Amino acid sequence: MLQSRPAPGVTLAANRFEFLIQPGWNDSSPEHWQSHWQQCLGARRVANRDWHLPRCEDWLAGLHAALAQAEKPVIVVAHSLGCIAVAHYARLYPQAIAGALLVAPADVEREDAPSALLDFAPAPHAALPFSALVLASTNDPFCRSMRAKALADSWGARLEWLEQAGHVNVASGHQKWPEGLAYLAKLVSLLGQDGEARALTARA
After folding, report:
1. Cβ distance 16 to 196 under 8 Å?
2. I want to staple 176 with a disulfide (CB 3.0 to 4.6 A). Which of 4, 48, 57, 152 is the partner?
3. According to the model, what pLDDT value does residue 155 have?
4. DSSP-derived pairing of the beta strands 74-79 and 99-103
5. What letter does residue 50 receive in the DSSP assignment?
6. How many CB atoms lie within 10 A of CB 193?
7. Of all residues in the chain, what percent carry a pLDDT higher than 90?
8. pTM of the predicted structure, to 2 decimals
9. Top-level class of domain 8-203
């Protein structure tokens, strides 16, 4: 069976950064690409108190606890509602994260948003204080293209489009998703000494 392997740039980055997996609502199943990436990257996963009845304050506490355990600057790999949690967290602790890959951010303000997600609304629109790459699908049922672009623009993040990729989850066929690791390598290439120094200063 083909195993996901980090791109060379990601492998080298492991000497400078730690990778932290921030799943979305209901966590990521063992078949989800985040679970596969966690294994192949040697990453840790945020441990939230309740994945099924999410509360923003609890999720931020879980992210904060995970970041506090890091011994190197951290790159967060977030999916769906996890992207919104990262944006909320960045307003409180602007120097704690070195960079973030934000995959298929959920639109928590859409008309048909589940009530379980409303505690995360409205989504933050302030520029993120670290390098970020947003991967948005052209047919995401939980975030229209215009909305994904608006979020990326407001966050000051680079935006890459995934054609007809659904919500970039198991249901849309994204399981090991080795192709996605190339985007993680691209994010790593965006991270200069400035982002690394900010994260180190935050823990000094």
Report:
1. yes
2. 4
3. 98
4. parallel
5. -
6. 8
7. 83
8. 0.89
9. alpha beta
Report domain extents, the chain: 8-203
| Distant-in-sequence contacts of 53-59, Cβ < 8 A, 24+ apart | 53/116, 54/25, 54/81, 54/116, 54/117, 54/119, 54/120, 55/119, 56/85, 56/88, 56/119, 56/120, 59/85, 59/120
Q: What is the predicted pLDDT for the residue at 5?
A: 63
Structure tokens at 196: 């690394």
User: What's the pLDDT tens digit per position in 124-173?
Assistant: 999 999 999 999 999 999 999 999 999 999 999 999 999 999 999 999 99
pLDDT of residue 2: 41
* Distance in Å from the first CA to the final CA of the chain: 43
b/e code 128-149 from CB counts within 10 Å (16+ = b): bbbbbbbbbbeebebbeeebbe
- Average pLDDT of the residues of the chain: 91
Phi-psi label, residue 74: left if phi above 0, alpha if psi -120 to 50, beta otherwise: beta
Pick from 95, 96, 110: nearest CA to 67: 96
Is the pLDDT confidence value at 13 over 90? no
